[in-house]
C-alpha cells in the first residue's frame, strides 16, 4: 500500500480484525496478544468482571488504544502526502475507528452507568458535537471526507451501541466459568450477528425482525440476558433534534405470562378499547403499540402462554399486525420480541400445549442460560467470585470480603462442595442474604444435598452388587434429581434428553424425595 511501511500494514491489519471481533471470544485475546507483541503482559482468557487478571486486561486495552492512535497519525500523514488508493484509505479508516472508539469509551461507559442510576432523569448522553469535530479531524483529508466512512450520525450511533452492549454484558452478567464466557459470546452475536461488518452496513435496523428465544432453568438469569439484548439495540441519532431517537433505558417492556390471567396478558400486549371486557373502564395502549421501533417486548414464561393468545402472537410475528381488544383498527408492531421459558418446549409441542409454527417463528436466535451447577463444575473458585458479587451489593470494603468468606465456608461445610443449587443464582442470592441476617441458610429442597441419597449410592457402589443397568439408572436419576430438569441433566451427562428421560427411575425418585421431605413430591417433568 502506497507509503505505508510493512510493519504499519501488519499492525493495521490486526487492528482491523479487532474492530469486528467478538470481544468476549478467544479470538479477541489472540489478536490482542498479536497487536501488543513484546509489550504483552498476562492476559486473562476472556473479558469478564471477576477475573483475577482484570487489571491487566484493562491496561492492555489502554496500550492498544495508544498504539492505534499513534498508528492512525502516521497513516494519516502518509495519505495527506501521497493520497493513497481505496484499499489504503479503508485500512486507515478501520485503524482510526478503533482509536476513536477507545478514545470515547470511558466517557460513554460513564454515561451509560449514569443512565442506570437513580438520578438517571438528569443523565446527559455523549456529546455529538464533540464527536463530529473529532470525526472530521480523523476522516477528512485534504478538505474532503473519506468515502469509506459512514455518516457521522450512523458512526456515532454504532459506537454508542457497541459501548452499551459491552456494558450490559460485561457489568451485568457475572461469572468467569466457561459456561458464562460462552453465554457472553452468544449474546454479543444475538445483538450484532457473527459478522459485525455486515451488521454495520445493512443489518443494524433489521434484526428487530428476528425474535430471540432464551431457555434455561429458573433463576439462571434469563431476564438479565433479555435486558442486555434490549438495551444494546441500535438507536439512531437524530442530528436535527440533537438526540437519540429513544432513551435506551426506556426500551425494555417485560411481562410475565404465567403471573397474569389470559385477559390481562392480552390487554397488556395488544391493548384494549373502553368496554372491551368487564373492567375495561378506559382505552389502554398495549406494549406492541407503545414499544416503538426501538423497543423490545419481553415475554417471560412463553411456555405458559394461553393457546388462543399464541395464535394472535403468531400473527404479530408473521405479519407485524395486530388488533387491540374491542377494536377493528389494524396496527403495526415495530419493535423486537424476546421470549424466555424454563419449560421443555419440544415436549409442550408434542403434548399439544405449544404451537409448533409459533416455536419455529421464535427459535431462529436461541440462547441457553447455564445452571449455577454448570457454572461451578469447571472451577471451584467460581463460587467465591459469585458470592463476592452478591456480598458487595449489601456491604462495602473489607466487610464484603468477610461476608464472602463466611458464606463460602458455610456453603462448603453445611451444604457440601457438590451441592446442586437447584434455585440457581437466585438461590445463591438468598443464601447470602440469609447468612448475612442469621449466619446460616436452610435450602428449600434438602433432597438436592448429598445427604442420605448420596451416602446410599456410595454404599451400593462400594458393595459391588448393582448390575450395569441399575448403576446407570441410579446415577441418571440422581443427576436428574440434582439438576431439576431433563435438559440440565442431559447437559451434565453429555447425552440426549430422551436418554435421560428413559433412564430416570420415577419410583426411586419419589422414594428419595419422600425420605428427605416427608411428603410426596411432584413426579418428574
Architecture overview:
- This protein has 525 residues and is of the alpha/beta class.
- It folds into four domains: 6-203, no CATH class; 223-370, Rossmann fold (3-Layer(aba) Sandwich), CATH 3.40.50; 379-444; 451-517, no CATH class.
- The protein contains 23 helices and eleven strands.
- The radius of gyration is 27 Å and the shape is globular.
- The model is unreliable at 447-451 and 516-525 (pLDDT under 50).
Q: Mean pLDDT, as a whole number?
A: 86
Domain module count: 4
Helix content: 55-70%
**In whole angstroms, how far apart are the ends?**
63 Å
**Stretches where pLDDT falls below 50 for ≥5 residues?**
447-451, 516-525
What's the shape? Answer: globular
Strand content: 5-15%
Strands of the biggest beta sheet: in what spatial order? 6-7-10-3-11
Q: What's the total number of strands?
A: 11
Q: What is the alpha-carbon Rg in Å?
A: 27 Å
Provide the fold topology.
Blueprint: H1 6-19, H2 26-36, H3 54-82, H4 86-115, H5 128-139, E1 140-141, E2 144-145, H6 152-170, H7 178-192, H8 196-203, E3 212-215, H9 222-231, E4 237-238, E5 243-244, E6 252-256, H10 262-270, H11 287-290, E7 296-300, H12 307-319, E8 321-323, E9 330-332, E10 336-341, H13 345-350, H14 356-362, E11 365-368, H15 372-377, H16 382-391, H17 397-415, H18 424-438, H19 451-463, H20 468-483, H21 486-493, H22 497-503, H23 506-517
Parallel strand pairs: 3-10, 3-11, 6-7, 7-10
Antiparallel strand pairs: 1-2, 4-5, 8-9
Amino acid at each position: 500500500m502506497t507509503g505505508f511501511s510493512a510493519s504499519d500494514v501488519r499492525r493495521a491489519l490486526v487492528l482491523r480484525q479487532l474492530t469486528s471481533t467478538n470481544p468476549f471470544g478467544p479470538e479477541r485475546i489472540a489478536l490482542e496478544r498479536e497487536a501488543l507483541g513484546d509489550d504483552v503482559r498476562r492476559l486473562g482468557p476472556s473479558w469478564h468482571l471477576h477475573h483475577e487478571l482484570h487489571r491487566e486486561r484493562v491496561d492492555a486495552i489502554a496500550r492498544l488504544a495508544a498504539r492505534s492512535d499513534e498508528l492512525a497519525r502516521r497513516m494519516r500523514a502518509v495519505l495527506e502526502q501521497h493520497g493513497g488508493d481505496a484499499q489504503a484509505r479503508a485500512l486507515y479508516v478501520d485503524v482510526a475507528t478503533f482509536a476513536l472508539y477507545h478514545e470515547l469509551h470511558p466517557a460513554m461507559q460513564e454515561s451509560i452507568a449514569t443512565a442506570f442510576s437513580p438520578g438517571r432523569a438528569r443523565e446527559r448522553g455523549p456529546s455529538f458535537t464533540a464527536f463530529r469535530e473529532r470525526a472530521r479531524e480523523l476522516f477528512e483529508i485534504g478538505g474532503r471526507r473519506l468515502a469509506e466512512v459512514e455518516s457521522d450520525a450512523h458512526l456515532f450511533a454504532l459506537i454508542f451501541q457497541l459501548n452499551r452492549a459491552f456494558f450490559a454484558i460485561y457489568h451485568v452478567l457475572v461469572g468467569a466459568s466457561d459456561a458464562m464466557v460462552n453465554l457472553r459470546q452468544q449474546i454479543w452475536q444475538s445483538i450484532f450477528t457473527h459478522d459485525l461488518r455486515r451488521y454495520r452496513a445493512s443489518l443494524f435496523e433489521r434484526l428487530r425482525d428476528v425474535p430471540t428465544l432464551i431457555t434455561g432453568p429458573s433463576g439462571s438469569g434469563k431476564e438479565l440476558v433479555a435486558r442486555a439484548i434490549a438495551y444494546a439495540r441500535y438507536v439512531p441519532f437524530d442530528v436535527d433534534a440533537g438526540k437519540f431517537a429513544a432513551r435506551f433505558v426506556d426500551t425494555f417492556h417485560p411481562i410475565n405470562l404465567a403471573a397474569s390471567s389470559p385477559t390481562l396478558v392480552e390487554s397488556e400486549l395488544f391493548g384494549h378499547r373502553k368496554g372491551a371486557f368487564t373492567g375495561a373502564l378506559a382505552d389502554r395502549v398495549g406494549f406492541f403499540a407503545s414499544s416503538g421501533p426501538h423497543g423490545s417486548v419481553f415475554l417471560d414464561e412463553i411456555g405458559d402462554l394461553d393457546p388462543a393468545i399464541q395464535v394472535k402472537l403468531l400473527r404479530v410475528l408473521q405479519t407485524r399486525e395486530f388488533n387491540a381488544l374491542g377494536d377493528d383498527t389494524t396496527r403495526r408492531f415495530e419493535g423486537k420480541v424476546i421470549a424466555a421459558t424454563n419449560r421443555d418446549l419440544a415436549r409442550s409441542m408434542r403434548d399439544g400445549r405449544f404451537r409448533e409454527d409459533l416455536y419455529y417463528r421464535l427459535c431462529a436466535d436461541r440462547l441457553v442460560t447455564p445452571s449455577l451447577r454448570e457454572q461451578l463444575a469447571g472451577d471451584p473458585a467460581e463460587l467465591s467470585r459469585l458470592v463476592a458479587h452478591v456480598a458487595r451489593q449489601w456491604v462495602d470494603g473489607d466487610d464484603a470480603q468477610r461476608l464472602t468468606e463466611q458464606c463460602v465456608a458455610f456453603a462448603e461445610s453445611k451444604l457440601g462442595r457438590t451441592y446442586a443449587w437447584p434455585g440457581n443464582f437466585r438461590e445463591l442470592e438468598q443464601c447470602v442474604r440469609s447468612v448475612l441476617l442469621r449466619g446460616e441458610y436452610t435450602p428449600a429442597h434438602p433432597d438436592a444435598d448429598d445427604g442420605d441419597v448420596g451416602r446410599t449410592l456410595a454404599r451400593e457402589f462400594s458393595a459391588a452388587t448393582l448390575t450395569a443397568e441399575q448403576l446407570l439408572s441410579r446415577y441418571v436419576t440422581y443427576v436428574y434429581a440434582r439438576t431439576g430438569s431433563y435438559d440440565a441433566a442431559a447437559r451434565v451427562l453429555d447425552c440426549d434428553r430422551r436418554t435421560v428421560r428413559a433412564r430416570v427411575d420415577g419410583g426411586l425418585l419419589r422414594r428419595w424425595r419422600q425420605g428427605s421431605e416427608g411428603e410426596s413430591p411432584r413426579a418428574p417433568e
